[in-house]
Design brief:
There is one protein chain. The protein is rod-shaped and about 120 Å long. It has 5 helices and 6 strands. It is mainly α. Helices cover 70% and strands 7% of the residues.
Length: 264
């Protein structure tokens, strides 16, 4: 009986020491198999939400890059429009029109350069073109959740049709109809930035959701796993006293036969 109680006290003492040194009441599955399984599942989801948060941040950076490049193109188009409106006035001679056309061509070349070079992590942000020069539209799927459902993805179309700028060398810049062509391209750029901005808003909401889920999962894991140090300290003292008492009683019990022999 005393030995059984001594074994139980020693086991309780070791458990209390382990909880105080690790800070956890669940250190292995045998401590509480059901809660250990729940905790491990939560830890897996917590890691998944951390990755999702990184995905969202990287996706947001990609869209910021696309928006910045689109703004540069919009600035060049606005200047080209100003030059076309200036040339359409009819008060400029051949040399002046030639100078205006030269700046328009230079800005058009810069738009094409930005269009072809705009990329993020080797992804063409404004889309790519096939051998016939046709724009290939392809949506980019941003993984913002932790599973394979559609609710865990946000599809973003970063392609923009700027093919009209390639034929600007053949334009008669003194013809006011050029203004309508430029307005059409400016409208495309504006719509593009609106769509990018809307996608950025969705990513901000997704990042907030990831933060909320991460916070709640962390709190739940802590509730299941973390030890109550005050309680563990109390158990340590209790089992230490019980262990010492059992050792004393066991020693006394072992001495009883010799005491009996001395009386004979």
């Amino acid at each position: 009986m005393i030995q059984r109680n001594l074994s139980a006290a020693t086991k309780g003492l070791n458990t209390a020491i382990e909880q105080m040194t690790t800070g956890y009441k669940l250190n292995r599955a045998k401590d509480n198999a059901a809660n250990y399984s729940i905790m491990k599942n939560m830890e897996t989801k917590l890691r998944a939400w951390d990755v999702a948060s990184d995905n969202i941040s990287i996706g947001y950076n990609m869209l910021e890059t696309a928006d910045s490049n689109a703004s540069l193109i919009g600035n060049h188009l606005t200047r080209i429009r100003d030059l076309c409106e200036q040339a359409a006035n009819g008060t400029y001679g051949e040399e002046s029109i030639k100078a205006i056309k030269a700046e328009i061509t230079a800005r058009a070349d810069e738009i094409n350069r930005i269009k072809d070079c705009a990329e993020f992590n080797d992804i063409k942000l404004f889309g790519d073109y096939d051998s016939d020069g046709n724009l290939i539209r392809k949506k980019i799927n941003l993984q913002v959740g932790i599973d394979g459902s559609e609710n865990s993805r946000i599809a973003v179309d970063t392609t923009i049709d700027l093919s009209a700028i390639s034929g600007i060398d053949d334009w008669d810049v003194t013809d006011s109809s050029c203004l309508d062509r430029i307005d059409s391209m400016l409208s495309n750029v504006s719509d593009y930035q609106i769509n990018i901005g809307a996608s950025q808003n969705r990513l901000e909401c997704a990042l907030e959701l990831a933060a909320v889920n991460t916070e709640h999962l962390t709190s739940s894991i802590s509730t299941i796993r973390d030890a109550d140090i005050a309680e563990a300290s109390s158990d340590y003292i209790k089992y230490q006293i019980l262990q010492q008492a059992c050792v004393t009683l066991l020693a006394t019990a072992n001495q009883m036969p010799s005491i009996a022999l001395q009386l004979l």
